[in-house]
């Protein structure tokens, strides 16, 4: 490879790693948002250790990506072979892990759906109607997705407030606006005039699945784009690494 090609590869790799660094920052920020935002879906699942662990993994992956981006920039701009080799190995491991995670999610989707149903049912059974953070998050989901419960409206039949009340109560956030009469609240419980609740018939699981199917092209595009970028980074790093014959560590800052 000529000197000009090596120089071009070096700066392309530097630019790539700068983007990778920013991408890691986005992932870490997304994980922090899921944990800290009162309106995020994670608040509803705050009793699930597995889901919380997944958010911490997102934060860890984002931080690791930022570190990799920094090391990649350093290895590219100062032509340090050991950093470039380490960078290539880490990218390869990440790509393998992503493929394994995708396969696991695909083949275990029924198990994941059952686990999700158990978690949400527990949340609904203990929904007291006092406008807590968890309730605000679940109300937000039901209102905006036009759904009721996880599988369906019957998920609310085990709620202790509804069971123990002498009134015909139903969750206000489930209320179908097209069937509503008069003023109604957006949270807590509302009183029904008949045993047939004026609520959405579809469960939130179906709404989430419908959203995923509608946006499957975007989701697949993002996944393929990420995989392509990682492969490009691997190719650039190994090409640059193979064409560095001597390393000048005097170029590396001492601080």
TrEMBL record:
It is found in: Membrane. It is a multi-pass membrane protein. Keywords: Membrane, Transmembrane, Transmembrane helix. GO terms for cellular component: plasma membrane. The keyword Transmembrane applies. It comes from the Eukaryota. InterPro entries: Tetraspanin/Peripherin, Tetraspanin_animals, Tetraspanin_CS, Tetraspanin_EC2_sf. The chain crosses the membrane at residues 12-36, 56-77, 84-107, 216-241. PANTHER family: CD82 ANTIGEN, TETRASPANIN. Belongs to the tetraspanin (TM4SF) family. This is Tetraspanin.
């Amino acid at each position: 490879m000529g000197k000009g090609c090596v120089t071009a590869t070096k700066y392309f790799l530097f630019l790539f790693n700068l983007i990778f660094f920013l991408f890691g920052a986005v992932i870490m920020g997304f994980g922090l948002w899921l944990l800290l935002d009162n309106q995020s879906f994670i608040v509803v699942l705050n009793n699930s250790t597995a889901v919380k662990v997944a958010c911490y993994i997102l934060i860890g992956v984002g931080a690791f990506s930022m570190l990799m981006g920094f090391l990649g920039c350093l290895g590219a701009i100062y032509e340090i072979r050991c950093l470039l080799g380490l960078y290539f190995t880490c990218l390869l491991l990440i790509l393998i892990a992503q493929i394994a995670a995708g396969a696991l999610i695909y083949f275990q989707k029924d198990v994941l759906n059952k686990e999700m149903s158990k978690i949400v049912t527990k949340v609904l059974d203990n929904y007291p109607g006092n406008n807590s953070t968890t309730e605000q998050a679940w109300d937000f989901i039901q209102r905006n997705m036009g759904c009721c419960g996880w599988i369906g409206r019957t998920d609310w039949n085990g709620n202790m407030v509804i069971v123990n009340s002498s009134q015909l109560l139903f969750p206000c956030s489930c209320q179908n606006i097209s069937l509503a009469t008069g003023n109604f609240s957006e949270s807590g419980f509302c009183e029904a005039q008949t045993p047939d609740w004026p609520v959405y018939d579809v469960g939130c699981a179906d709404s989430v699945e419908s959203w995923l199917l509608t946006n499957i092209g975007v989701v697949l595009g993002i996944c393929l784009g990420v995989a392509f970028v990682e492969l490009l980074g691997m190719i650039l790093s190994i090409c640059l690494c193979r064409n560095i014959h001597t390393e000048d560590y005097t170029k590396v800052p001492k601080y």
